[in-house]
Specification:
Length: about 425
């Protein structure tokens, strides 16, 4: 059976995140989106960790589900899954994970790295939290805490806690907080983790890069590429994800998920679901304040300086990949034939907004979105599998055509840069 996994999200206790990011509502949204397994997020935050313990019960080894009472109704606790009338028999499963920020000077440079960390159980997560508390870190201030430790030191702490814990560098190419980012990253995993590098078996590609871009680095051939939403609201859940195969529900365990990632098991890791990387907000180089962006070739001609203000441009993901790559795009495509495949999507609400030439949050988009869900399984099924002729019968032929164009990659995306998301145009004119 195929299962969709989103292993990087946030809670309401992370800065700039929606107050609706609570476990029951997350689970409900996952069913709408077609996400089967999702990270709990933010397990280092005391209040969120208590919410996790109140809401979750272990289903299979290291995999959790929402609690229900023996009678099949929700617990009466204020943090119970049914507090807002949500479906307590949710099919959504959770693994214990979070994102943390490592900010520390290392090898003569201040490194700012975001890291995904996972625990095999709530009990192990609690042991890790206790270690951080004893070291004096403030875990209450943010769901994604800042730790004054290097990435390697955090990995050491994890392995001391439990060797089954797993670390994956988040959005690896993001300028400010990626392990390979232009503003504080490293040139290789070995530079960051030294003798502990073998314990880092995967990286997250991030919204602004896709597997093809990463395949340009032969040094990443033995590193598994995963993709996740990094959602700051329920609406953004699943904008990137992973598709795994399990023999049965009983086989869905933390140990098996970790093994599939560690071993880059192509029989079990079916594919990743990707943003078009140009839509990511750090794909191109540029300056948000100057409303200027450009491709790496132009950056080189400009000697890295903004033509409007004269200051250094923020170097984006495509440029940084090009800097570290040892393969051409053609060579990367050839290497990709032996890699885990991927498919690029545009979120359904964005497709509908483009079709109707209106905002994503408008009534027209919302009503059509709900109509589609009433006739098909979930958003991922609509985007990736549903018969286009059947889609055409429900909301109209133009929507079916739009989804067809997205599936084939026949769209236009104005690249994002310096924190500005790219703009998708499905029915773009020649201009």
């Amino acid at each position: 059976m195929k299962k969709v996994l989103d292993l990087h999200i946030h809670s309401k206790y992370s800065r700039a995140c929606s107050k609706s990011l609570e476990l029951p509502l997350i689970a409900k949204t996952c069913e709408t989106k077609g996400i089967d397994i999702i990270s709990t997020s933010d397990f280092t935050h005391p209040k969120w960790f208590q919410h996790m313990k109140d809401c979750l019960v272990e289903d299979t080894e290291g995999v959790y589900k929402l609690k229900t009472s023996p009678a099949g109704t929700a617990s009466s606790q204020s943090t119970s899954p049914n507090r807002r009338g949500d479906d307590v028999d949710s099919k959504t499963r959770f693994i214990v994970g979070t994102e943390i920020a490592s900010i520390k000077k290392h090898k003569g440079k201040t490194r700012r790295i975001h890291l995904l960390i996972f625990a095999p159980s709530i009990e192990v997560a609690e042991k890790f939290n206790n270690k951080l508390n004893k070291m004096g870190f403030n875990l209450k201030s943010d769901g994604r805490p800042i730790l004054g430790l290097t990435s390697k030191q955090i990995l050491e702490l994890m392995l001391e806690t439990d060797e089954r814990m797993m670390m994956i560098p988040a959005h690896a190419w993001t300028p400010w907080f990626g392990i390979f980012g232009s503003k504080g990253g490293y040139d290789s995993l070995q530079d960051a983790f030294e003798e502990l590098t073998p314990y880092v078996r995967a990286i997250e590609t991030g919204l602004s890069s896709d597997p093809l871009m990463n395949w340009r680095l032969s040094s990443l051939d033995n590193i598994t590429l995963i993709s996740n939403s990094d959602a700051h609201s329920n609406a953004k859940l699943g904008r990137e994800a992973n598709v795994f195969y399990f023999k049965s529900e009983k086989d869905i365990t933390y140990t098996e998920i970790k093994r599939i990632i560690d071993e880059q098991d192509r029989k079990k890791f079916i594919s990743t679901i990707e943003f078009f990387p140009e839509e990511g907000k750090y794909h191109y180089d540029g300056h948000m304040s100057c409303n200027f962006s450009c491709a790496p070739e132009e950056t080189k001609k400009l000697k890295g300086l903004c033509p409007k203000c004269g200051k250094k441009l923020i170097i984006g993901v495509e440029n940084r990949v090009h800097e570290l790559a040892d393969r051409s795009i053609e060579e990367a495509r050839d290497a990709g034939k032996r890699k885990i495949p991927y498919q690029s999507i545009v979120p359904l609400a964005e497709i509908l907004a483009d079709v109707f030439a209106c905002g994503v949050n408008t009534k027209k988009v919302s009503e059509t979105y709900e109509k589609l869900l009433q006739n098909f399984h979930n958003e991922f099924f609509i985007l990736l599998e549903a018969d286009l002729s059947q889609i055409a019968k429900v909301p109209g032929e133009k929507i079916a055509e739009a989804i067809s164009r997205v599936r084939s990659g026949n769209i236009f995306v104005k690249p994002g840069y310096d924190g500005v998301f790219g703009t998708v145009k499905i029915f773009a004119d020649k201009k």
